[in-house]
Design brief:
The protein is mostly helical. The protein has helices at about 5-10, 15-20, 25-40, 45-50, 55-70, 75-90, 90-115. It has a single domain (about 5-115), classed as Four Helix Bundle (Hemerythrin (Met), subunit A), CATH 1.20.120. It starts with a helix and ends with a helix.
């Protein structure tokens, strides 16, 4: 099973992503392989919330939302879209809960990408 087939098993919409990348599967795979860097650079949302640095938390959640949306990683896109809105509305408890809720999926995605 190639990377795209494996990602499809965790609800990544490969066909939609390929459409965004004009059918260029090699480019799409290259972008998926860059995803761990983005996740790792933007993973400290909860520490930012705890430190009262809500603007940084919003920026990180928004960045992850955009990256996940561009690559059609829908479970994470939907989670980070909600987290971004919760943070903007001042619902830090809801945002923290959302970040915690997506962690298992996010870890599975990172595991797949580390083994490709």
């Amino acid at each position: 099973m190639d990377l795209c087939e494996t990602l499809a098993t965790i609800n990544v919409d490969i066909e939609e992503a390929l459409g965004r990348f004009m059918g260029n599967k090699d480019l799409l795979v290259m972008m998926y392989k860059k995803m761990p860097d983005s996740i790792n650079k933007n993973k400290d949302i909860i520490p930012d919330i705890q430190a009262g640095n809500i603007d940084a938390a919003i920026q990180k959640a928004h960045t992850l939302k955009g990256n996940m949306g561009n690559l059609s990683i829908k479970p994470m896109y939907e989670a980070y879209a909600k987290i971004t809105e919760q943070l903007r509305a001042g619902d830090t408890a809801g945002a923290t809960e959302g970040v915690n809720a997506i962690q298992d999926y996010q870890n599975k995605l990172l595991e797949i990408l580390a083994n490709c």
